[in-house]
Design a protein that fits this description.
2 copies of one chain form a homodimer. Chain A is an alpha/beta fold and 332 residues long. Chain A is built from 8 helices and 12 strands. Chain A has 2 domains: 174 residues, Rossmann fold (3-Layer(aba) Sandwich); 137 residues, Hypothetical Protein Tm841, Chain: A,domain 3, CATH 3.30.1180. Chain A is 33% helix and 23% strand. In chain A, strand 10, helix 7 and strand 11 form a beta-alpha-beta unit.
Chain lengths: 332, 332
């Protein structure tokens, strides 16, 4: 294993430290609990927290900032954040209007967020509520999940709900309703060309032959729908996108946002090849594209491959997607 | 080789097509010449063009937009753009005030930009001038280069010169002077953990043992200064950063912008570990950090590793770095 790391145990904390040092005016951390939170002043808004295992960067610590998340709880690589980290994060970011937890559907994450909610209720506050995100159409149940998994579609939830809370100051119940509505309208599926390698294990998480791909792979290397022979991009991306389209289903006349999400080790040039294929398909189906997002949004360490997400839009979603966010992950 | 591609020969055009389809209001292309240019109206500014082989994305087609480049000429993977593409791009983007070519120092790119300049002079316009960028401190001469190579520091040149032209409308001579001044103040060096694989060859460009790293690697896999045994991040990043700091040199009291640039296959989490190390070093040296840029800015396909760039700042550079750019590569 060759990575830009020191000791495997220190990977998450050193990454979070780099993130805070690179954004000293915007972010603070509680390092021993791996909490990243906004330092800029904000008032009179429901706070938004997401959390999950690390290794999916920029998801989710790199989305903490004005117009998106107020805090992120980072677990160890591919392991849930702790109960007390979630409790502390909620207390740190609450401004008296409550906290919404946005949680991708993995059993460990759900359990800890649920226990944190119970503990906060027992302690008398802050007031919290949770929305579970489960956009992955690949499989019903999975290694770490009952029901569908939450993957890159969660980014649309963070963005839309973050903008709503920041710009329009609605209450916790309205924000929860909006988050559920976004989740109801987003679908995703991905595939892997190459497994990821966790720092602790030091070897690939799953075996994939030199000529094989895993269709519907999970964000931690969980098995997908099928293992197929490697194919040209046109065929792979069409299969993935068909599965996404058929699921909601997205139909002629719909307006969508498209996300092509790299899994960490795939160059952005290849992601744009995938984008071209998806956009041609949508044009043929007369599904209107409002905006296309192409980048590494929700990754699996150094896994190679990508996912396709579609979000069916309404005017509110469009307005909130276009609202500016000031987040640490950026170019210029 | 497993990549998200169709035929190796179609990789660049399909990528550029995806880029334009994803940004239909902002970008246009001349596909047979692999020119990407701004579609939004702009007037009364010197136009800025960069060009080089493809495979370094987002450099440079993904930086075409308001406040940065007006066009990019993309060659085939790792090969210079053609003479006539450069000539045509200059004619497309010129608004009567001339065109500045920003060219990373590779022999093939220089030759074609130089011939294009001569041809445009012979044809009577537009008026063009060229600045060669050579920020890589690793080696003096290299496989494809006489003198130092141009690497990620070029992004600082594009950004600062792009903002100056867009916001302040200076003439070609002033803009050239500014580009040279940025180039004089930026230094970079990188290293590889793993070679890239070009679509055409289908196997790694160079051999690197399972326990080896290439210090000072070039953007096309050219040999660097030394091949060393793999080391903890603290040691690798310190060596790279020391080489960068000693070269200008950057000294106590200087104010800098820092760029940690992924080479394409390295997850952003690891880049932030590198960022933390660099920022700690600069703090110890009492070199003040104005802003830190961490992402894949100038890559080598799927190469793993990163580079560190430092730019010594003045008030003008700071103002222009902070000026907004509207470019296709983005998050939200």
């Amino acid at each position: 294993m060759k990575k830009i790391i020191n000791k495997p145990d220190d990977v998450v904390n050193e990454m979070l430290k780099g993130l805070v040092l690179a954004n000293p005016e915007k972010l603070s951390a509680v390092y021993d609990k791996r909490i990243i939170y906004r330092k800029d002043p904000y008032l009179n808004k429901v706070a938004i927290i997401s959390g999950s295992g690390s290794g999916h960067e920029p998801d989710q610590a790199f989305y903490v900032g004005r117009g998106m998340l107020d805090a992120a709880c980072a677990g160890p690589v591919f392991a849930a954040p702790t109960l007390d980290a979630i409790v502390d994060a909620a207390k740190i970011v609450d401004r008296g209007r409550g906290v919404l937890f946005l949680v991708k559907n993995y059993t460990g994450d759900r359990a800890n967020f649920e226990m944190a909610s119970e503990m906060l209720e027992f302690e008398g506050g802050p007031n919290v509520d949770t929305v579970i995100i489960n956009d992955d159409v690949a499989v019903k149940d999975s290694t770490y999940t009952a029901g569908r998994r939450g993957v890159a579609g969660a980014m649309f939830v963070y963005k839309i709900v973050g903008a709503k809370s920041e710009e329009e100051g609605v209450n916790l119940a309205s924000l929860k309703k909006l988050a559920m509505e976004v989740n109801d309208n987003v679908r995703s599926m991905g595939f892997a060309l190459k497994s990821c390698t966790t720092p602790a294990k030091g070897s690939p998480t799953f075996d994939l032959g030199d000529d094989e791909i895993e269709m519907g792979v999970g964000l931690h290397g969980e098995p997908g729908r099928q293992r197929l022979k490697h194919m040209p991009a046109n065929q792979i991306i069409k299969k993935i996108t068909d599965s996404v389209i058929e699921d909601l289903p997205f139909i002629c006349g719909d307006e969508v946002a498209v996300m092509i999400n790299g899994l960490g080790g795939t160059p952005i040039g290849e992601l744009y090849i995938a984008a071209g294929i998806v956009l041609d398909m949508l044009k043929d189906l007369k599904i209107k594209v409002f905006k296309t997002y192409v980048n590494n949004f929700c990754t699996s360490l150094d896994m190679e491959g990508c996912s396709v997400s579609l979000l069916k839009l309404n005017e509110e979603f469009k307005r909130l997607l276009e609202s500016p966010a000031d987040i640490p992950v950026r170019y210029f």
